[in-house]
Amino acid sequence: MVIGHECAGIIEETGSEVKDLVPGDRVALEPGISCWRCDLCKEGRYNLCPDMKFFGLPPFHGSLARQIVHPAYLCFKLPDNVSLEEGALCEPLSVAVHACRRGNISPETNVLVMGAGPIGLVTLLAARAFGAPRIVNVDVDGNRLSVAKELGADGVVQVSTNMQDIPKEVETICNVMGAKVDVSFDCAGLSKTMSTAQSVTRAGGKVCLVGLGHNEMTVPLTPAAAREVDVIGVFRYKNTWPLCIELLRSGKIDVKPLITHRFGFSQKEIEEAFETSAGGGNAIKVMFNL
C-alpha cells in the first residue's frame, strides 16, 4: 500500500484535454477524487462523498511516489513565491481553513484550540488569518505549546491527561483567555479534550470537532445542550486550495516554521523519516524532497 496525501510537485505530462496546465508548472494537489454524482457532491459537500477516492486510503494508492497521475482540476498552480514544500502543506492547512469556515471565525470570535500538534498549530494560524482577536492553545506537551506561542498564540495552557482536573483547567483557560470563548476547536478528539472544550465554551458558542482521536468518547452533552453549545463536525475540506494558496502567497500565513525535518527519497532516509515522525519530540512536519 502506497501512503501519502500531503503533496506538491511539477507537471511532467498532461492529457490531450488539459488546457490550463503545462509541463513545468508547479502545483499543489488536493488528494480526494469525489464521484460528483451523489447528492452530497451535487450539494457542493463533496468532502462527504461516500465514494471518495482519497490518496493513501485503502484500496487507493497515495502520493509517496516519484510519479503520480491525478485529475487536472485537482492540481492548483503555485505562485513563484510559494515553494513546493509550502504547497504540500496546503493539505493540513485546508483542514484548518475548512474548520474556520464551519466555525464562522471572524474578528469578533475568541478561539480556543485544544491540541498543539500539526493540526492544532495550523488551526491557530488559520484562525488568526480569519481575524480571530484572541487565541489560546491547550496541550499536555510544553514543547508544543512553546511552538504555539512562537506562532502567535495569545496564551497557552498546559494540562494533564486526568479527567478529574477538568474543572480546575477550565478555570485556568478562562483566566488566560481573559474573555468568553466563542468557538473551541478540538484538534485531538479525546473524551477529555472534548469535555473541556464543551465546558469552557460560552453559552450559544460552538465546539468544532476537528481531530478524530477516538471513535467513541464520553462527554457531558446535557450541560452543553442546556447552554445551546453547538457541536460541529469537521471532515477534510472543500474548495479550500485557492484560499490556502492565496494566504501563503500574501504572507498572511507562514507554514514554513512547521517543517522541522527534511529527508531525501532513498530507502534509508524514508525509514529514518518515519522513525523521526513516530518518535515525536520536536518533530512537527517531516518533509520528503524527491
From TrEMBL:
<feature type="domain" description="Alcohol dehydrogenase-like C-terminal">
    <location>
        <begin position="118"/>
        <end position="248"/>
    </location>
</feature>
<dbReference type="InterPro" id="IPR036291">
    <property type="entry name" value="NAD(P)-bd_dom_sf"/>
</dbReference>
<dbReference type="GO" id="GO:0016616">
    <property type="term" value="F:oxidoreductase activity, acting on the CH-OH group of donors, NAD or NADP as acceptor"/>
</dbReference>
<dbReference type="InterPro" id="IPR045306">
    <property type="entry name" value="SDH-like"/>
</dbReference>
<dbReference type="Pfam" id="PF00107">
    <property type="entry name" value="ADH_zinc_N"/>
</dbReference>
<dbReference type="Pfam" id="PF08240">
    <property type="entry name" value="ADH_N"/>
</dbReference>
<dbReference type="InterPro" id="IPR013154">
    <property type="entry name" value="ADH-like_N"/>
</dbReference>
<dbReference type="InterPro" id="IPR002328">
    <property type="entry name" value="ADH_Zn_CS"/>
</dbReference>
<protein>
    <recommendedName>
        <fullName>Enoyl reductase (ER) domain-containing protein</fullName>
    </recommendedName>
</protein>
<dbReference type="GO" id="GO:0008270">
    <property type="term" value="F:zinc ion binding"/>
</dbReference>
<feature type="domain" description="Alcohol dehydrogenase-like N-terminal">
    <location>
        <begin position="1"/>
        <end position="80"/>
    </location>
</feature>
<keyword id="KW-0520">NAD</keyword>
<dbReference type="InterPro" id="IPR011032">
    <property type="entry name" value="GroES-like_sf"/>
</dbReference>
<comment type="similarity">
    <text>Belongs to the zinc-containing alcohol dehydrogenase family.</text>
</comment>
<keyword id="KW-0862">Zinc</keyword>
<keyword id="KW-0560">Oxidoreductase</keyword>
<dbReference type="InterPro" id="IPR013149">
    <property type="entry name" value="ADH-like_C"/>
</dbReference>
<keyword id="KW-0479">Metal-binding</keyword>
